[in-house]
Amino acid sequence: MSKSVDNLEKIRKSLSRRNRAEKRFRFYGVTAVLIGLAAVMLLFTDIVSKGHGAFRIAYLQLDITYDQDLIGIDNLTDPQQLALGNWQAMPKVSLRNQFPDVSGRKDKRSLYGLVSNGAGFDLKDRLLENPLLLGDSETLWVLADDDIDTYYKSWLDGEPYDARLTAKQVAWIHELHDQGKIRLQFNSNLFTRGDSREPEQAGIRGAVMGSLLTLILTLLLSFPIGVSAAIYLEEFAPKNAWTDFIEVNINNLAAVPSIIFGLLGLAIFINFFHVPRSVPIVGGLVLTLMTLPTIIITSRAAIKSVPPSIREAALGMGASKYQMVLHHVLPLALPGMLTGAIIGMAQALGESAPLLMIGMVAFIVDIPGGFSDPATVLPVQIFLWADSPERAFIEKTSAAIMVLLSFLIIMNTSAVWLRKRLERRW
Amino acid sequence: MQATNILFLILGLGCFAFYLGRGRSLAIAKPLGGIRHLHSLPSYYGFHAALWCALPSLFLLSLWMIFDDLLINSMVMDALPAASAPADSASYNLLLNKIANLADGILPRSGESAALITAADQMLNYRVVSRWSLTALILTLSLVGMAWGWSRTAPLFRARPVVEAVAEKILLACACLAIFTTLGIVLSVLFESIQFFRSVPAFDFIFGLDWSPQTAIREDQVGSSGSFGAVPLFVGTLLVSAVAMVVAVPIGLMSAIFLAEYANKTVRSYAKPALEVLAGIPTVVYGFFAALTVAPFLRDLGEGFGLSVSSESALAAGGVMGVMIIPFISSLADDVITAVPQSMRDGSLAMGATKSETVRRVIIPAALPGIVGGIMLAVSRAIGETMIVVMAAGMAAKLTANPLDSVTTVTVQIVTLLTGDQEFDSPKTLAAFALGLMLFTVTLLLNIFALHIVKKYREQYE
Amino acid sequence: MNQNASTAGTKPAKEAKPEAMQTLELTDNEATVGQCFTDKPKMSMRNVNVFYEDKQAIHDVSVDIAKNEVIAMIGPSGCGKSTFLRSLNRMNDTVDGCRVEGKICMDGEDLYAPKLDVVELRARVGMVFQKPNPFPKSIYDNVAYGPKLHGLADSRVDLDEIVEKSLRKASLWDEVKERLHQAGTGLSGGQQQRLCIARAIAVSPEMILMDEPCSALDPIATAKIEELIEELSENFTIAIVTHSMQQAARVSHRTAYFHLGRLIEVNPTEQVFTMPAHRLTEAYITGRFG
Q1: Which candidate from C127, C131, C137 shows the least CB-CB separation from B350?
Q2: Which of B3, B65, B448, C89 has the most CB atoms around its CB within 10 Å?
Q3: What DSSP state is assigned to residue B83?
Q4: A422 contact C CB<8A
């Protein structure tokens, strides 16, 4: 067949071009995947490299004298005296003793700038815990100012950043360093304190508590409601227009931008129902509405995966439909539902946009203790810190992100583990 | 008594009613010769009593919670002497706030007019009365319900069907919450938007070219025309979303194709979850990354080429948003690509097509509706994305199509308008709801359309 | 019984065999009977073994296929006839973990040589599948797919001509010429399968493999396809796997009987169905199992 031979010639001629195209296409595919993976790597390394430093913070060794006259206090139980005490004078005096040559207002001010503005209050707390110290003196490690901290860390890393320091301050730091009187310690403030304007004083405890309270409420509301809705739709709902309408609504809500839920919360919960602003209650309500579609959709999938034979077996034994659902379907579908709930909670934990709308973006120093205390949440805290101009907050923000990401990683891996461990294959 | 305490009271009474009802049914069954002489299991009688006890009270409680404030407010305001009565709705709210603050002790009482002090006292008074009457009412209602439910317990009483019917209604109510949520969204944004459109014509809002809401908070400029033209925001949103799509669509699609068609099992089992990590990262983290790493990098890079790149460029925000959307597109595309039947691949390969020819000429066309649907969902997500643009895009509304320039978006403006001052009826805050209405409408249409396409597509191969 | 099988070294089959087959166990060293080889084969297989992961699906098959011959492959399900067919145009490459040993040559050229391009091979050896699988494109585009891929048409006119010729050869032209640009998936099952045949012959292959092409079709459509196969055999070499012995009897020149991954007997069709040479073949065509 000449035609066939002729064709074969043509095919052979086109082969090298087509194989090149094939290789090119494959290369694009590999590149796309690699770009995605590189983005993951880049993001994580960027955050870690920016944030790892925040877990340690600079302390200065100072000789502190708890001088009654200096502080202006003689009775540690008098709240008025405690409130008015000149606590910051203690580190100041100690610094002056350390560097006796310093004179002049300007130089003194920059000398005082070595320690944190909150150092005096830390000393006050220490004094209140050990009242016998009053009048005594001791050698202590005192929190350094954030600029000092930033400079000291960057200098240790070999790239000194001294933009916010005076030349003298730099010299003092080096002197302290040579004497071994400045060092990096574990930054426990980060985990034990609430927000602060001073980077070296700021911690994520308040935000973590706020997140915890908000999430507890979200879970308590969204899991039962979501599971109930899923049970209804899978087991009881008649096939009619109303059910279809519910379904369409759920699917759409899953794709509605989260900020819209914030608007809903602001208009309905705060302005109409007068729920107070900034509290975990309103945050929990908004996040409940937001995560509900996710939980309903995953719960439905879990219920669907229970084979009909089990249902028939239960009904055949004379169980009512409720007994069938409660005794058989629900226990079997529970792992899948829990997985969905964890995923929904992870989503809620990372969410910040709707919470900005309902005032959880306020600057809150106190650690919330209940559902109706003003609070912020971890992602919003990150947003607030990221907006702060102080350089030390970059490090803090990255550290808070690392904490947030570790929570999320724990939640997601436990969801995967749960699915692998408990989910039954039919 | 506090509302939460009342709630716990009701729940406690409900549990008590459960035990009473169950106990009574057991007691009745004993002389008859065991519980099989009852129509339903004892716990159903318990539930029956508990439902009677708790449901009406809960219903009353929620109604009360919704309406008592409104009622008290209007009673207080009506009682105000004519001299201090408010003239219009704006001053009504202002005055009401003031009285409430006086009542709560947030504002000092000294120096306020006697009428207001009286009103504040009255408000406190009414509140106490309301709380106590509510407590009394609920307690009565619960006890009566409990007694009724308890008294109905009898061997022939069909408790199970009753309980189950109520349970089904409760389940239905949970399912309907989705509808109420949608309704709540629609009503809240629509209501505030209508108020907004009273002071700023809708036409000027949708087609106006100038956006400067800051000027409008000054009294003399309220509703001044031209300051609420949202076109620059729409353009900015589209620009950022377009950049995001330019990044996300090719990468997401190609990686889905590679993972579905080329990669072997091992590669797939590692690469897929690794890519999905991107989807689990909170948007605030992306925002931080965009603002502090990508934007400065792009600016420096631009300087190297002699380009002026804004440090809040649409490119940085959009690019990072694109990275966020990659896994979204790739997993949706993966779904639709693997849904294309193997016989299509076989048919094409058996014709002597290479793998890439098969993908491009058979699989992609076959999967196109699904892919388009997925991309539309991704676009809707990009339009509604907030944190990345809030942190990395600008505030100034600029009408530009240059991705190196700084633009602002609808979501950024919603956040800035609502996190600043919170005077609820200024056009400035209402504008945020009008923007929200726009955002909701557009994303809703995109979602409905996209979900419809995807569903149709799935059905085709099922 | 299973013990017997394993001591004999046979791979235990997946499905449990019915009692009646006990006497029909085949032994390992059983050679293929019948006329396996021809002088000038279009395609020749020697000692072919096919594995899926570590499961052996085809054991030591050697056979020739002559030019312009229709060879039918029959056998009980799971006997490996489809696997064997798919190894002839290397469609098995698409299955993860599939491995082919032995030698398969077309016109003396080794199909599994490393330098051989499967694209070219598949253009030369077309395939029609069990379930009609037209692409979700128009009828025209379905047929034009192959010629476009391989650059066989120099112009639109050329392409039109190829499409018409192929559809005519597949005796589908008259039924679809009015609606060439409608979706191919809108055709009836039999028409779809003929469309797939037209699609396969549009690139003028030298050989066509058919994997149970009629199993998803009704009797009337089946009759049309069978008629078509007979016409096509004038120009093409055809290997057809079929589940239906009647079909094999109607369309093929030679018939190969597969059993548990082994080629038991190859003989002219008439002979296989009238006086089978092997007891297993006999048992199969007399309906003792299948």
Answers
A1: C127
A2: C89
A3: G
A4: no
pLDDT at B308 over 50: yes
CATH for A205-422 is 1.10.3720.10
CB contact under 8 A, A397 and B418: no
Name chain B contacts of A29, Cβ cutoff 8 Å: 254-255, 257-258, 261-262
Say if residue B258's pLDDT is above 80: yes
Query: Within an 8 Å CB–CB cutoff, is residue A31 touching chain B?
Result: yes
| Å between C59 CA and nearest CA of chain B | 24
Q: Which positions of chain C have pLDDT values less than 70?
A: 1-30, 289-290
- ipTM for the predicted complex comes to 0.91
- Over its C-alpha atoms, chain C yields an Rg (Å, rounded) of 20
Domain boundaries, chain B: 3-157, 231-460
pLDDT above 50: residue A275: yes
Averaged pLDDT of chain B: 86
B292 vs A386: CB contact, 8 Å cut-off? yes
Residue in A40, A246, A320 closest to B274 by CB:
A40
Percentage of residues of chain B with pLDDT beyond 90: 40
- To the nearest whole angstrom, how far is the Cα of B261 from the nearest Cα of chain A? 10
Written as one string, the DSSP assignment of C11-45 is PPPSSPPPGGGGGGPPPTTPPPEE----SSEEEEE
Q: Rounded to an integer, what distance in angstroms lies between the CA atom of residue B420 and that of residue B308? A: 31
> What average pLDDT does the segment B106-127 reach?
81
pLDDT (tens digit, 9 = 90+) per residue, A58-73? 999 988 888 888 888 8
Please report residues of A whose CB lies closer than 8 A to that of B411.
257, 259, 353
Give the count of Cβ contacts less than 8 A between chain A and C: 36
Shortest CA gap C135–chain A (Å): 21
Q: Which of B158-172, B236-250, B378-392 shows the lowest mean pLDDT across its residues?
A: B158-172
Q: Is the model more confident about C192 or about B30?
A: C192
**C56 close to B (CB below 8 A):** no
Best mutation site among C162, C169, C204, C237 for testing chain A: the one with the most A CBs within 10 Å? C204
- Distant-in-sequence contacts of B399-403, Cβ < 8 A, 24+ apart: B399/B209, B399/B231, B399/B232, B399/B235, B400/B235, B400/B239, B401/B235, B401/B239, B402/B314, B403/B239, B403/B243, B403/B313, B403/B314, B403/B315, B403/B318
Q: What's the gap in Å between the CA of B265 and the closest CA on chain C?
A: 9
- Give the gyration radius of chain B's Cα atoms: 31
Comparing B316 with C10, which gets the higher pLDDT? B316
Whether C200 and B351 lie within 8 Å, measured CB to CB: yes
Give the pLDDT confidence score for residue B420 in this predicted structure.
Answer: 62
Size of interface B-C (CB pairs under 8 A): 69
Give A356-371 pLDDT, tens digit per residue. Answer: 988 888 888 888 888 8
Instruction: Provide the CATH number for the domain formed by B231-460 in this structure.
Output: 1.10.3720.10
C86 touches chain B (CB under 8 A): no
Using DSSP's 3-state secondary structure scheme, residue C48 falls into strand
pLDDT given at position A4: 62
On whether the CB atoms of residues A287 and A225 are closer than 8 A, the answer is: no
Query: What is the domain class of C2-285 according to CATH?
Result: alpha beta
- Taking the CA of residue A86 and the nearest CA in chain B, the distance in Å comes to 30
* Integer Cα distance of C221 and C225 in angstroms: 6
Please give the pLDDT value at position C6: 37
The answer to whether A12 faces chain C, any CB pair under 8 Å, is yes
Instruction: Summarize the confidence of residues B391-400 as an average pLDDT.
Output: 85
B66, B178, B288 member nearest A250 (Cβ)? B178
- CB contact at 8 A, A66 and A130: no
* pLDDT > 80? residue B87: no
User: A217-231, B69-83, C247-261: lowest mean pLDDT where?
Assistant: B69-83
